[in-house]
Amino acid sequence: MERSTMDLWVGLFVVAGIGALLVLALKVGNMSSASVSDTYALTANFDNIGGLKPRAAVKSAGVVVGRVSEVKFDNEKFVARVSMNIDKSYKFPKDTTASILTSGLLGEQYIGLEGGGDTANLASGERIKHTQSAVVLEKLIGQFLYSKAAEGGDKK
Amino acid sequence: MLARTAASIRGIGSRSIDAVLRLGYAARFIARTLASSGTSVKRPRLVVRELYFTGVLSLIIILVSGLFVGMVLGLQGYQTLQTYGSESALGVLVALSLVRELGPVVSALLFASRAGSAMTAEIGLMKATEQLSAMEMMAVDPISRVVAPRFWAGVISMPLLAAMFSAMGVFGGYLVGVVLIGVDEGSFWSQMQSAVDFREDIVNGVIKSFVFGVAVTWIALFEGYDAPPTAEGVSGATTRTVVTSSLAILFLDFILTAFMFRGV
């Protein structure tokens, strides 16, 4: 095989390889949706986070506004401290409520933010004071049984 | 009886010493290859020639296998996901399994048997026909002239081949899932894009294939260089290349997966 033809093929091969990587990054992955834009940090304390994991979505009205960056246990208050990065273009009032929700019946858990009526906005590094823990199925069933038992007791 | 037991124990001992000896020789070999790869930088034509043989000529098998693996994933995934009414997650299943695991691993296995065995046979024959000794006689270092360009060609072409395998596989999954079965196209791509992370999944896949590339070319070149200079020796070395590098790929894949995706 002639030298130049071989060079052409190798060049094509490298271009195709890099092209495949670009396709993977832009079409298959989420590079194009610019998930690494400017963010600011917020924290929130939850009594129980259920199955929340780092990189879980933070949504408001169903729109993804940020990601969970870290989940830690606070050894003084015995609560879970969740840090999240919120996109700079979204602002939330100081009395925002953060709750841990589940997408679908068996889906992943995410944090839902619901804005309040305060005029001042949360600044970077601040803590969301109103939180609502994840629903734990065992506790829910326990409460249900307890209330059923109480009902039965009233009837007698 | 006692003598036979003693002999068998001695056999185990000598085989272990041989294995450690070969491992040490292999480590010295890769260190020398890395140290004498200056020629490959000064004369990139040498690497380009090897890229043609290892990369370009492996293209067909990589692309066709990628397409079929993706199509099978599409069919099988659809069967299972349909039971739970979540066919729209087909794109996620196909893309994640290809980018994280099947792309790097299957393309490395194919690369080992397609390009690795050829490398071993070529270098083994060069040694058997005393071409390597002839080079040394002419004061040409065979490691920098023959081995290093092949090493770098293998290391460069492996991630590119794995990326092409994954891209082709996603296309195959799309063909079967969306075009043939009729899964909704929008949810196929959008769920895939929201689930596949560039840093976590794609970069980790590329790192994996890079490590496999180093392992496969190292094993192939060393087996060739170390092969006994007979027809039998070269054929044995070629077999060992395919077996050892396949095992190394699967073992390394487990280690890397344990590091990368611990499910934190």
Compact overview of the structure:
The complex is a heterodimer of chains A (156) and B (264). Chain A is α/β, with parallel strands linked by helices and 156 residues long.
Question: Average pLDDT value of chain B?
Answer: 90
Largest interface: A-B, 28 and 33 residues
What is the rounded Rg of chain B? 22 Å
Portion of residues in beta strands of chain B equals under 5%
Q: How do the helices and strands follow one another from N- to C-terminus of chain A?
A: HEEEEEEEEH
The class by helix and strand makeup of chain A works out as alpha/beta
Query: What is the count of distinct domains of chain A?
Result: 2
How many DSSP helices of chain B? 10
Shape descriptor of chain A: elongated
Main pleated sheet of chain B = none
> How much helicity do the residues of chain B have?
over 70%
What is the average of the pLDDT values of chain A?
Answer: 83
> How would you sum up the global shape of chain B?
globular
* Contiguous runs where pLDDT drops below 50 for at least 5 residues of chain B: none
Number of strands of chain B: 0
Could you list the spans of chain A in which at least 5 consecutive residues all have pLDDT below 50?
none
How many beta-strand runs of chain A? 8
Q: How many domains, in number, for the residues of chain B?
A: 1
Structural class of chain B: mainly alpha
